[in-house]
Request: fold
Amino acid sequence: MIEWINLIVGYLARIIEACGALVILHGAGRTMLFYVRDHILRHHGAHVSALRLLFGRYLTLGLEFELAADILLTIIEPTWERLGLLGAVIAMRTILSFFLEYELAAMEKRREYSEPLTNGDME
Reply:
């Protein structure tokens, strides 16, 4: 019975890992598409910070999937190598989330200062 559970959890972890990779790949493709469309084709120049935030959100979501997969694999095979990998993914995800939140707050603040006042804002 334990072998079956380990087998099923192992397959689930691989599926979740693949989902995380697909999310990151989708985010990279979407970010590149926006960059090409806005920067090269229209010659506007995309806001790099907005593109970084877009891709960073996909990275964070993808790392969440990778973290879930690593947790499952660590449960069925708790080796020091797995624990180290789990710690590295947690550290990367935490650092990435911190800087994403920081940049998002800075962008919101810049947007507040750059938007012109409308008649409704003055009341």
User: Anything to note?
Assistant: Residues 117-123 have pLDDT under 50 and may be disordered. Residues 2-110 form one domain. Residues 13 and 69 are 4 Å apart (CA to CA). The chain has one domain: 2-110.
